[in-house]
Amino acid sequence: MIHKKFGFTLTELLTVVLILAILTSVALPQYRKSIYRAEAANALINLKSLYDSAKRAYAMNSEFPTSFNGLDVKLLTDENTGATLTSGGFKFEFVGKGIKGCRYPAAQTDTLCLQVVYASGGKRDVYTCSATGKYVSVCESMGTCTGGTCVIE
Question: Whole-angstrom Cα distance, residue 27 to residue 21?
Answer without folding.
Answer: 10
